[in-house]
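Quick start: read one record
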Amino acid sequence: MNALPTTGELFATNQVSPETERGYKYQLRNFAQWMADSRDVHDMEDVTTADLLAYRQSLQHLAGSSQKRYLAAIKSFFEWALEAGIIEKNPAALLKLPKSVSNKAPVFLTLDETRLLLNTAKLPRDVALAMASLEAVRGASQPFGVIAAF
């Protein structure tokens, strides 16, 4: 029997950067705690693909990139454990990682919407706040100085 690591010391070796090691340790502790609390599983050999799918479901409140980071650490851990001969079967082999980048294009205010926003501001502080907000989100898609033209 091999207990699920609660510190990540088995897996996170000097083969990765210190930041990656810190992340792996945190993500493995989180996974081990979830397995103990939610599935009453404490040994690596007892983890199933169904457990991993349930864990993935429990991460749905996180951004896709965070889910991917958690699950990638777990997949890597089980790959390592299989190669090291600690487990006989990798329950994460078929686990698919979520896409971390949305395919949605960013949404911007049109010129008319920008004018309307600025025209609805009555107090000088509201105008300043609207101008600062628009300037902060302007990005490279709008030419510099468009907002100043209002």
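The helical segments are 18-39, 49-58, 64-83, 111-120, 124-137.
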